[in-house]
Amino acid sequence: MGGSGSKAKGVWPFSGNGAGGDSASDGSEQSVARLKASRKATPFVFTRRSSLYYDEDGDLAHEFYEETVVTKNGRKKSKLKRIHKNLIPQGTVKLDHPCIHVDFPVVLCEV
């Protein structure tokens, strides 16, 4: 369930000792540089990917539908058809207040 966490092997972004798939003792300069860069990672998330889309009129919504009229046995019936084409994703959205990253490895509240 979920699936929003990171499953990639590598340096744990929030640990200071580099407990992950790569270690600094490999002698590789690249892993040492990655370790030093990852120590500056923050446990907070300030932006997220939006789930909203723009249509060709500039309207913003999660889903778009168009009404179609179907004639069956002389009777007119209207149906809603979902639009999948010509939708532009909204992109990255700044959060109102920062959230804690899902991979943050610290217990925040213990009962």
| Biggest β-sheet: strands ordered side by side in the sheet | 3-2-6
Q: How much is the radius of gyration in Å?
A: 24 Å
What is the string of SSEs from the N terminus onward? HEEEEEEE
Number of strands: 7
Q: Main sheet? A: 3 strands, antiparallel
Approximately how much helix is present in the residues? under 10%
How many angstroms does the end-to-end distance come to? 24 Å
Count of helix runs: 1
The secondary-structure class comes to mainly beta
Q: Report the sheet-strand fraction.
A: 35-45%
Low-confidence stretches: 18-27
Summarize this, please?
This protein is mainly beta and 111 residues long.
What would the keywords be for this entry?
three-stranded antiparallel beta sheet; 111 residues; 1 helix; 7 strands; mainly beta
Structural account:
With 111 residues, the protein is mainly beta. Helix content is 9%, strand content 35%. The chain contains 1 helix and 7 strands, in the order αβββββββ. The strands form 3 sheets. Strands 3-2-6 form a 3-stranded antiparallel β-sheet, with no helix packed on it. Strands 1-7 form a two-stranded antiparallel ribbon. It has a two-stranded antiparallel sheet with strand order 4-5. β4 and β5 form a beta hairpin. The radius of gyration is 24 Å and the shape is elongated. Residues 18-27 have low confidence and may be disordered.
